[in-house]
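Notes from the pairing session

We agreed to fold both candidates in a single pass and log them together. This is the raw record for the first candidate, unedited. Please don't reformat it; downstream parsing expects exactly this layout.

Candidate A
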Amino acid sequence: MKLKNGCNAAWYELNISSADDCVAPCCYYAGAKDPWSNDALSVEDYWNSPNMQTVRRINSEPESELSAGCANCYYFRYKGESGSYFPDFLTPQEDISPIQKSNWLAAIDDYRAGRTVLRSRPLRYYVNFGFACNLYCTMCHQVPRRKTLKRQVSSDVLLKWKESMKGALDITVIGGEPFVMAEAVSFIKAVIDEPELEQVQLTICTNGTMHHKYMDLLSRKRKLQLTVSLDTIGAEFEKIRIGASWKAIERHILEFVETGKRLGYSWKLQTPCLVLKSNICRLVDFVDWAIEHGAMPGFYDFINARGIEKTFEEENLIAHPYLVEQVPDWESYFLEAVARLRGNGLIGAASQLDSLRGAIQERLGRWKSGMTSVDRLVQITSGAEIYNKKGKTLFAALQTNIYGTSAGAEPVSVSEDGLLFRPTHLNDHLSTQYIDIPRSSAAKEKWIRVHCVWPGNGSNGACKLYLQDDKFNTLECAESGASEATDLEFVRHFQLPVETTKVRIVMTARSMEPVYAPKEVLIERLG
């Protein structure tokens, strides 16, 4: 992937996450990052570190392919090559202090010159204080890690950077839920009450359950933005964000809007929306609600992570486009929502949503085409199974990868009902020996079909199954889908890279509860 002019994130943002123990140019960067330290290091130690210089180097060479963590950037996936991380980066605003303007102009000059060691300082400090939260949202990658990753950013350490922060345009506080973390609340209060930071916008990313308790504090900040993760409204909201009440959240948001109007402040409201199967039918209602209350919506794809695989399978429309067939007339919701966004001047949000619709439609078409071809090829190659073993001998040469400590019981055991896997850690997994995939020089695409049947005892769930090649790439591609599904059986088609010659089955548990491996597996090469 190439960006037209190189991403500006590494000239704009310093992104800190204490729970994940990293400092990076943005949330999406996948390359080497600096560890976060609660020692009082300087901004310079992070801002011009060798890792940050690497990010700037690969984004300032116009003809080079992006690499080292920027390739196939999730943020730009639905923005195109002309997209920008900070769209207004090259256009300084008027309502800023002389210090902010000087820093901004220096950042623009650094960016245009392609400097890797900057004279400017961050224009945005984006601080993830920790994973602590009062909700258990179904698609949140933090939930499975919350009990083990409890570290929080120290407010006192950040406040030592006040001189540099005076030149920033924005300080963003996120979690978890910032208002349940003492360090985050302490930092918010310090930023609000610091006269020298009066011109710096404070952005608080919240779930909307608690900010109303701090309205007296928030009312002291003229430049304030609230980013409330909603995804949808009404009953569908409560199904996604477990533990929240839509009526209460709406009341808290409207109190924020009305307070800003009463004070005469131009407070901003953002409402990010993760596009899921569950909220398609409320897209138009969500857009109407955002427009009515002056909110800026944004639309995003699902990011998978360990521990939320079930939601990924059942809700991710990009990875599993066939899911939209469970929503009658699904595309009309997208089209109408996009039209209303454009009609109200929300062009960026409209473009995001329409890009997601286009991606779903394109992948749905490819999936249907593949399914038609698969059905025909299965009939031709029905006697050429690559792998077909049943019952207790299915995983006779199974490799067990155990990261925790078992409490007496063996992690893997065989019973009359099948092979039972008792995880000791969320990273525990089982894997078979590699299976050879014969080459086909004429094929432009390589497909295999996987048919699994789990024991029907009902007492334990089914494991999660992946395919993996001999380079350890997970081969559950975006084009994969289910042609039939019951509680104990699925058929799934995987599109593999043409050069793939070996795959193996990798199985994990969905939680810490015991699960059964399949008692029957059939994998067929198609084409």
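Candidate B (folded immediately after A)
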Amino acid sequence: MLAAREEPLRNLIHASVTLLTVLFPLAAQTTVTGTQTLTSGQHLNLDDGTTGLAGGDLYWTSTPQLGSFGSAVIAFPPGSVTASNFASITQAQLIGYTYNSTQVFGAKAGTVFAVYTNQNNYSAVLITAVAADQTSVTLQFITFHSPTISKVVNNYSQIDSGFPNSGIAVGSLFIIKGGSLASATTVSALQSSLPPGLPSTLNGASVSVTVNGATVTPVFYYAISTQLALVLPSSTPLGAGTITATFNGQTSQAFNIQVVASALGFAGYYGYGSGLGIATNPFTGALYSYTNSIPPGTTVVLWGSGLGADSARDVTFVTPVGGFAINSLAALYVGNIPATIGYQGASGYPGVNQLNVTIPANAPTGCHVPVVGVTAAGVPTNFITLPIGAGVCQEPEWGRDGTALSSLATQATVNAGYIELNEPLDASGNVPSSPGTYMPVGFFSYTGAGFASATGVVSSGGCIANSTIYSSTISGLVPGPIFPSGINLEIIPTQPPNTFVLPPGTVGPGGSETFQVQGSNQVGGFTVTASLPSPVLNWTNQNAAATITKSKGLLVTWTGGQAGTYVSITGTPGGPGAAGSFTCIAPLSAGQFTVPPYVFAALSGQTADITVQEQTVPQTFTAAHIDYAFTQGADSQKVSAALQ
């Protein structure tokens, strides 16, 4: 039961093209040109064309002399290169010159010279004028940026290197992020995988991967200045290796990668490796969404890359007649419930895999029900979420539904925020005499897609782990002063997130506090009331979290709490080298919840702070300039855990 041929290609566009337009809007140029006038002591940064009193590549001494700065070195081209043909100089010419350690030289109008900059780029410079009194020099410059690699990740999961579930699988679709990687700045179309297949060079770019002394050449789906999308040959040896990108005759510095047999990444609709996953109807290809959720018991197709080698489809599309299974997952969980995998393997397109999965009949419902695959070794995939239910998904624990989510996700910008009360409890579950009740406040501006795929949001009954660096463009919004009722106190928010502390005794369990917030040019004024739950939650087995064996998971039990609330269990990095986080949600009435082993398997590091928090259902409120805001009350207890 394989899906329609067009769907994987559409998935690729969702997961890659959306990503690149969100994450890297500023790094499209491969050359920087301009003219700058330097006065005594001023420096010129040829890499970006800026001036200052320190740093840069060149500085003016007013003797009249120019000097190179830092590791920048200078070359003087042959006499055939003059002011008259300066504009036609090429990067290839600059690469061919011999650079030396000359630091200072006499400046004369009409002189042309070359600089290998502090950031390893090649620049041509023309002295157009020297002031008669030698107080300034005017320079015209052309800087050709060298290719740089900042990150290499699975196209779909986006999991960063160093995590247990990272690595680039043979036969997988992966992306290189960086700068000056190719001549194009936008993706006009994906390369066709029909015969003769995907190209090994595109828009002046090529890529080389070397592992254990063997070198292979990936092929391209697209190539732009800031990002390359490629398929790693199935024949690539496994192990630690390096990757380089070449553009305009220049090769980047080698970037370390780890090639693995399999490392599946599920496709997220908004391209961040998290949030709403891409799930389609196996017969019609229709996409499930927040307003078209998946009924339990339904078979869907999930998309991604990284199941493993598929040499027949490294370069060209080949229909998998009868299926070409690549069974690297031992299990798949939907809301912590095991699901049946009917097929996992080739989709037909190079690097793109599909999985036919039946949603368990007893799966939890909601807008963010987590989905994760796990290998026989216990290594998880990235965590995506699916809307499960009937029609518009419902999420009472977050105080919103699929209609609201879908509407916000389509906006270019979403301004959202919160103001909360949080009562910290001591180890015995009592309210300590100090420091007082915490008041977290935060308002932010997201892209619509970034808001919709924010990590850490999960439906009740499930867990989600984050093994990626959340890359959406987020900026803080600052409201005006906050005045709590009945307290002679003015609270001044700064760039978020902020956490303030109300004086002890101001509010206790079951109590409420009303906040009058003065408007600013970013957040309109509002008045809102937050209430703490009562009675408080009692985490009854805190000692179990002191030392956690990751392969066994963690059982959390509790008593007390206010009826109708929810319990969140979170893990955040707790020490040097720790990375990754997780969030689980359960109804208070459950009395217990087990954080599965595969959640801990997604974390690196040896320590984590485990927090168990009772939280009321969020109550939304309105404010000018804000699209979505809520208030909430909570009480919480925290344990510092050793992970083993």
